[in-house]
Amino acid sequence: MQQSICEATTRTTLRRMGYNSRRPHHVPLISTTNRKKRLQFAQAHQNWTVEDWKNVAWSVESRFLLRHSDGRVRIWHKQNENMHPSCLVTTVQAGGGGVMVWGMFSWHTLGPLVPIGHRLNAMAYLSIVSDHVHPFMTTMYPSSDDYFQQDNAPCHKA
């Protein structure tokens, strides 16, 4: 058969079959090795109680954008309204900047939130550990029955 199929007909047929169109969710890329390590961690800790997890302090690094510059925005407008102020999204050079922070938390409390003015390399991470992690852990867990949990970022291997 050499029939062409209209794009609109294809979309309509897919919707009738229960499919919907949307942008894909963004998820971190996890290597096969790290998938195995995560599974091993989950299996090793699957029987932990809430009391066990209360002895864990977690850390995380996050980047917060000061302006929305890393996604698509959709608008609806009438003909000849495309330059109306309500139909515009302002931009700035270099994306508008952002701030990177490192923080930690536990069942009991929030820990320090540390601004990071540059890339977090091994030396900067070791400085954070000595200046913030050790004091937090010795204060929150004086009996040393605690765990400090971090992700598998390269600088954490320092």
From TrEMBL:
Highest taxon listed in the record's lineage: Eukaryota
GO biological process: DNA integration; DNA transposition
InterPro entries linked to this entry: RNaseH_sf, Transposase_5, Transposase_Tc1-like
Pfam families noted in UniProt: HTH_Tnp_Tc3_2
Residue ranges occupied by any Transposase Tc1-like domain in the UniProt entry: 4-47
Gene3D superfamilies membership: Ribonuclease H-like superfamily/Ribonuclease H (3.30.420.10)
Annotated GO MF terms: DNA binding
Entries under PANTHER family matching the protein: TC1-LIKE TRANSPOSASE DDE DOMAIN-CONTAINING PROTEIN, TRANSPOSABLE ELEMENT-RELATED
Protein known as: Transposase Tc1-like domain-containing protein
Upper lineage: Eukaryota, Metazoa, Chordata, Craniata, Vertebrata
